[in-house]
TrEMBL record:
Classification via PANTHER family: NB-ARC DOMAIN-CONTAINING PROTEIN-RELATED, RPP4C3
InterPro entries assigned: AAA+_ATPase, Apaf_helical, At4g27190-like_LRR, Leu-rich_rpt, LRR_dom_sf, NB-ARC, P-loop_NTPase, Plant_NBS-LRR
Organism lineage string: Eukaryota, Viridiplantae, Streptophyta, Embryophyta, Tracheophyta
SUPFAM superfamilies per UniProt: L domain-like, P-loop containing nucleoside triphosphate hydrolases
Coiled coil: none
All copies of domain AAA+ ATPase, residue ranges: 211-345
UniProt key word Repeat: yes
Stored SMART domains: AAA
Keywords assigned by UniProt, alphabetized: ATP-binding, Nucleotide-binding, Plant defense, Repeat
UniProt family annotation: Belongs to the disease resistance NB-LRR family.
Pfam families: LRR_8, LRR_RPS2, NB-ARC
Name the record gives this protein: AAA+ ATPase domain-containing protein
Length: 1260
């Protein structure tokens, strides 16, 4: 090839080598002839010698010939090997991401391997470019083909070595979901009033000050400090003022392990060390790696050493806000700024009261005056106002008058509760008194037995309610559950309890309300003694206190020893839950508790049940679950407790269910779950005739089955030396009283063998696991069915199908024979909310059918019925033959009459769709399905290497164009054949709410067509990684979407009513080797909200912004690019020379007045700091590579006799004067656990895309 010096040189070398070989042949020929004429006895030796010589001469020559002849094959083989390397590199990268999130350090060998893999990808790209550029070129073609063939062959061997080495780094990702975001925090009745606005403004102003690292927020209990800070936390994180905001409750007796755990959980950090000091050091390292983080410590009662006791290195990037009732705590903590949250003004108090009681009060003349009086008596305290308002809602005038009168009175015996205003106490007490029934009041008081800030579920309260006999006229546990739920709803309606935003189905009690409830519960008649969460190490036996005690709570302490005998003859309820230091209970301990009805020993460490427990003949409830002792627990003694109604020994290492348990004739609930070695003998369960709830999941599973059909089952039965319980025993219970069942049957391998004679119609809650078993996750519902390793040729039997029709959650894993999930039965699968299908190789064509059919008299009947009308979440993984998600191509189904949220049909309620490893699926969401997903919020697609498009809107009718309008998250991962994200017309409302896009390992040259990009008005985060062929993020031409070159001279400047990506706050790009620029100027000027820009491992990047317009047009306007940019990171960009070549003189473009942190590493071609230092007044941190920093060129200042060193020192002095911290070093990034190329696994990989595998060894 003309003009190619490398190719000419290679050709010359080849000619020299051929000449050398010819010379070698001429030297060896005479020798060979002489040997042939020698004695016959040496013929064999001669022949061998000749063979070796020819092999020596010919083999290298043929290698060189093959480079030329097979250059295409070598290039294709290399491409295949590189594809494997790309996949392996992606796996290793994910492991590194997850490890960084957990605060681990990556081995140098892993980092070096990743660098070599990146370099190999760059070499392969250069090779392919050479081949493309010279396609059809005659001159010099042979020499170029030879060189390509040779390089490709050599690189194949190098890639194979990388593959072998890389496979030793087995992947590990952390599937544990992070807690809900601050956006989901419940802020009860929050409204910005004058007093709250003043406090919020003061807090905000304090946090903006660079030198303020700790802010104190104080005020009366019930004034709204916690609610205000929850709202502030949302705002601060949403607006990007902090990258992370974590809020934890400290309380009066701080539980250090719990506090550390809460902070770590929010950061994705896992602790494996029991030592508080070790955990603290790991937390310090993790927090130092955050850019800007705010930690809110709620409800402080005494000063703490944050660094030593918890591990919070406040200062620089980490700020603290603490809330407390006491200003003295702020002073002792040496807060730099304190804000008092004051009571509401009278006008604001009236507005809040109207919201609580109802707006009708404004026009009710009979109640208006007394309402005003009540508001005045509440003293402007929000908690008091809301609670009284809810208590008086829909009450008559006499109740209102009584409330006003009671509030005006002084409390007969006001409690001495520190930091609580008497008006708050009176309002809570009054609200309690107005509760409709004694049962509701008692349920409220039971909640105070749990530690402060506890999450409490109805399942937690049920044993206490049953033990106390709160609902004496109800015998059925099912009815008790329903009644308890009704009372809990009443308590939430009165604001005495609130929903826990962190855990669905749980409630919390405000700390002020809990203080009042403990005071009420301790009075005569109730006789509660509550010492939960006090950090007690010894049991305090005070006769005067315990002599009349009826309810004693010692939950969540560190008690190690109990007295030998405790005389509490009136004690009805005792809770020692969560005392995991308690290893032994004295043998006579329970002898003085003849009245005891409820005993809670959950999460203790006892290894032996004391003999005195058998004397508790009145005991109704015994909870022994989750005890920590490794030795088997013998529960035969419990057979003497004939009145026992609830027995819970879940996860307690019970190996054998003794015969004595069968004698518990009053037992209604038995929990044996998670006892993995448990065996159950025949005729024990069947004797429990009153049993309503039986929990056996992840426990005993090899059941005897009547009429066993398979030889395997018969062989297993005959080989077993012990007789075991039969499924017919469970069936007999289901015919009597059973309403709840959790069961695992592992010895069922075929759908046709599923003959479980259970009366499913009587069950209200069930979990049935058939096959090899599954792990629990967060999506459990009331009715769950799972198949794992079960052969399912077809669904046809109506009796078996009834089980599926009842299911809210249905899962299939590794089920051969399964071809599709057909909605069978007249009702369809319209109870189904969650569907998971994993690793089913026989799934063919499609997986779901949106019409129903069933078998009647051996003939299939079609029914015009809607299927999957309630389906919310669909996860598909490892389905290699899947061609479509659904076979439905007709019009949208009619609204369902039968039930199913929203009244829509088809997939009207689907909100989350995960698709992974479906290799021949071409279109993820085709047009016929696109219009049927109106509520889809999250779409994640990964490892679908055959997919050519994600969305296809072709063929939609005009009225169906508003598609994907509720989609918020889009994650595309390793779609190597993808041609476009959206095929067809993008309607104006499509993707209008999309906030987060993550793209990983796509082979697109242009990611977004212009029409699609224009719809992304709400996009806040865009993260792109390993898109090596991408040359532009978006197309700038409406009519030429396939253009792959740089910005053309004819490209028109973009002017739109709403800037494209106008709400974008975070832009990350990594490993995009074909990018030469990131954005055109016309687009960059619209990114006014951008706060974080990170560009890493883009080897060909020359400039950040390409100038597609005349910057002189804007000089007078002084338009600034990225005016809110706070964080800029440039990492390993060897060809980056400047931010924009075309606007070198327009320095106002890059003044970046909001920039706080600048990081530059391995950008050797960049000669200037990429920021106008004079105008970046908020810049506080610069992290750079020392060698590069010392070679920088600096702007000239006014001195005429300046040198380069003078310029440098001048600017450095200016930076120091402004308090900028400069850190220059060769390994600065590793030292601070801040490898910038990473995106954390929690933001990248959904649960459905994570496959379990051994851990990666990451620590040095």
């Amino acid at each position: 090839m003309a003009g190619n010096p490398d190719a000419s040189k290679a050709s010359s070398q080849m000619e020299q080598q051929e000449s050398t070989m010819s010379r070698d042949v001429s030297l060896f020929l005479p020798l060979m002839i002489g040997l042939i004429t020698s004695k016959v006895t040496t013929i064999d030796i001669v022949i061998n010698a000749i063979s070796e010589v020819i092999k020596y001469l010919v083999s290298p020559f043929m290698d060189h010939v093959s480079y030329l002849v097979y250059y295409k094959k070598n290039a294709n083989d290399l491409r295949e090997q590189m594809a494997r390397l790309g996949e392996l590199k992606a796996d290793v990268q994910r492991s590194i991401d997850a490890a960084h999130m957990r605060g681990e350090v990556i081995k140098i060998v892993v980092e070096n391997w990743l660098t070599r893999a990146n370099e190999m990808q760059s070499k392969e790209m250069i090779l392919n470019n050479t081949l493309e550029q010279n396609k059809g070129c005659l001159q010099g073609g042979c020499s170029m083909h030879y060189q390509v063939g040779k390089n490709a062959k050599q690189m194949i061997e190098q890639v194979k070595e990388l593959l072998i080495e890389g496979r030793t780094f087995t992947t590990m990702l952390d599937p544990t979901p992070l807690p809900p975001s601050l956006e989901t925090m419940q802020t009860l009745d929050f409204q910005v009033y004058d007093s709250t606005k003043l406090a919020m403004d003061q807090i905000m102003e304090a946090l903006k000050r660079e030198h303020v690292n700790m802010v104190g927020v104080y005020g009366l209990g019930g004034v709204g400090k916690t609610t205000l800070m929850k709202q502030m936390a949302k705002i601060l994180e949403r607006d990007g003022f902090f990258n992370h905001v974590v809020m934890v409750t400290v309380s009066q007796v701080p539980a250090w392990t719990k506090i550390q755990g809460e902070i770590a959980k929010n950061l994705g950090l896992k602790f494996t060390d029991d030592s508080l000091s070790v955990r603290a050091r790991r937390l310090v390292d993790r927090l130092k790696g955050e850019k800007r983080i705010l930690i809110v410590l709620d409800d402080l009662w005494k000063p703490l050493n944050l660094l030593e006791q918890i591990g919070i290195p406040y200062g620089n990037n980490c700020k603290i806000v603490l809330t407390t009732r006491l200003l003295e705590v702020c002073i002792q903590m040496e807060t730099q700024f304190n804000v008092e949250v004051k009571v509401l003004l009278e006008g604001d108090a009236w507005i809040l009261f109207k919201r609580a009681v109802g707006e009708l009060i404004e026009n009710d003349n009979t109640l208006h005056s007394v309402a005003k009086q009540i508001v005045r008596e509440c003293g402007g305290l929000p908690l008091a106002i809301v609670i009284i308002g809810r208590a008086l809602r829909a009450k008559d005038q006499s109740v209102w008058n009584d409330a006003a009168s009671e509030l005006m009175k002084m409390s007969s015996s006001p409690p001495d509760i520190q930091g609580m205003h008497e008006k708050v106490f009176r309002s809570i007490e009054l609200s309690y008194n107005y509760l409709a029934s004694e049962a509701t009041k008692f349920c409220f008081l039971l909640c105070c037995m749990f530690p402060k800030d506890s999450s409490i579920s109805e399942n937690d309260l049920l044993p206490y309610v049953v033990g106390e006999g709160v609902f004496r006229d109800i015998a059925s546990l099912y009815e008790v559950r329903n009644k308890l739920h009704t009372h809990m709803e009443r308590l939430k309606g009165s604001c005495l309890l609130v929903d826990d935003c962190r855990r669905k189905g749980f409630v919390r009690m405000h700390d002020v309300i809990r203080d009042v409830s403990i005071w009420i519960a301790s009075k005569e008649g109730h006789d509660f003694v509550v010492k939960s969460g006090r950090g007690l190490t010894q049991f305090q036996d005070r006769d005067e206190e315990l002599g009349k005690c009826k309810r004693l709570s010692l939950m969540q302490n560190k008690i190690t020893n109990l007295p030998n005998l405790l005389n509490c003859s009136q004690l009805v309820t005792l809770s020692l839950r969560d005392n995991n230091c308690l290893r032994k209970i004295p043998d006579a301990f329970f002898q003085g508790m003849k009245s005891l009805k409820t005993l809670d020993l959950e999460q203790t460490d006892i290894c032996l049940i004391p003999s005195s427990l058998s004397s508790l003949t009145n005991l109704r409830v015994l909870l022994l679950s989750k005890y920590y002792c490794p030795h088997p627990l013998d529960v035969s003694l419990l057979g003497k407790l004939k009145k026992l109604q609830i027995l819970d020994v879940n996860d307690s290492n019970v190996e054998k269910l003794p015969e004595e348990i069968g004698g518990l004739s009053n037992l209604k609930s038995l929990n044996l779950g998670d006892n993995k070695g448990l065996t159950i003998a025949p005729n024990i369960l069947s004797r429990l005739s009153l049993l309503e709830e039986l929990y056996l999941e992840n426990s005993f599973h090899e059941w005897e089955m009547e009429g066993q059909s398979s030889e395997e089952d018969k062989a297993r039965s005959s080989s077993s030396s012990k007789a075991v319980a039969c499924l017919s025993e469970v069936a007999s219970l289901s015919a009597l009283s059973l309403t709840t069942l959790e069961i695992w049957v592992s010895n069922i391998k075929r759908w046709s063998a599923i003959n479980i004679p259970i009366h499913w119609e009587k069950l209200t809650r069930f979990t049935v696991v058939l096959g090899s078993g599954v792990d629990r996750d967060e999506y459990y519902c009331n009715t769950n069915v799972f198949f794992s390793g079960v052969f399912i040729p077809q669904f046809s039997d109506r009796e078996r199908m009834y089980l599926l029709e009842r299911a809210e959650r249905l899962g299939f894993s590794n089920c051969p024979g399964l071809k599709y999930i057909l909605s069978v039965g007249a009702r369809g699968l319209n109870n189904l909310r969650y569907l998971f299908v994993y690793d089913c190789d026989d799934i063919d064509e499609y997986i779901l059918s949106c019409t129903t059919s069933f078998v009647v008299d051996d003939e299939a009947k079609d029914v015009s019925q809607i299927a999957f009308s309630r389906l919310e979440r669909l996860e598909l993984r490892g389905l290699p033959r899947l061609k479509a998600i659904s076979n439905s191509r007709g019009p949208l189904p009619l609204p369902s009459r039968g039930g199913g949220g929203g009244g829509g049909g088809g997939f009207n309620n689907l909100r989350v769709l995960y698709v992974c490893a479906c290799s021949i699926l071409l279109t993820i969401i085709p047009s016929h399905l696109l219009a049927k997903l109106p509520n889809l919020e999250e779409l994640c697609v990964g490892d679908c290497h055959g997919a050519i498009e994600v969305f296809n809107s072709k063929g939609l009718e005009e009225g169906q164009k508003a598609t994907m309008s509720k989609l918020k998250q889009l994650k595309l991962d390793q779609l190597t054949s993808l041609r476009t994200i959206w095929e067809g017309i993008v309607s104006p409302l499509s993707l209008m709410n999309l906030e987060y896009i993550f793209l990983y390992d796509l082979r697109l040259k242009i990611l977004f067509p212009l029409a699609m990009a224009q719809r992304l008005q709400q996009l806040k985060k865009l993260k792109i990684r390993f898109c090596e062929e991408m040359v532009e993020i978006m197309s700038m031409d409406e009519g030429n979407e396939d253009r792959v070159q740089g910005i053309s001279s004819s490209s028109t400047t973009l002017h739109y009513l709403n800037p494209i990506f106008g709400n974008l706050r975070v832009l990350h790009l990594s490993d995009c080797g074909s990018l030469k620029h990131i954005l055109p100027m016309s687009l960059a000027q619209g990114l006014i909200q951008l706060e974080e820009l990170s560009i890493t491992w883009c080897s060909n990047l020359e400039e950040i912004i390409v100038n597609d317009r005349d910057c002189n047009d804007d000089i007078q306007e002084k338009k600034t690019i990225f005016p809110r940019l706070r964080y800029l990171q440039l990492f390993k960009l060897p060809n980056l020379s400047m931010m924009s070549k075309g606007v070198l003189l327009c320095r106002h473009y890059y003044c970046w007045p909001s920039l706080e942190t600048l990081k530059v590493w391995r950008c050797s071609n960049l000669k200037f700091l990429p920021v106008n230092l004079e105008m970046a007044t908020k810049l506080r941190r610069i992290k750079v590579e020392e060698e590069w920093f010392n070679k920088l060129e600096w702007p000239e200042h006014d001195d005429d006799h300046q040198t380069d060193e003078d310029n440098k020192q001048f600017h450095l002095h200016r930076l120091r004067d402004r308090g900028v911290k400069l850190n220059a070093g060769q390994i600065i990034l590793q030292q601070e656990h801040d490898i910038p190329v990473r995106f954390f696994a929690k933001e990248v990989v959904p649960l459905a895309l994570i496959t379990s595998s051994p851990p990666l060894l990451l620590t040095r």
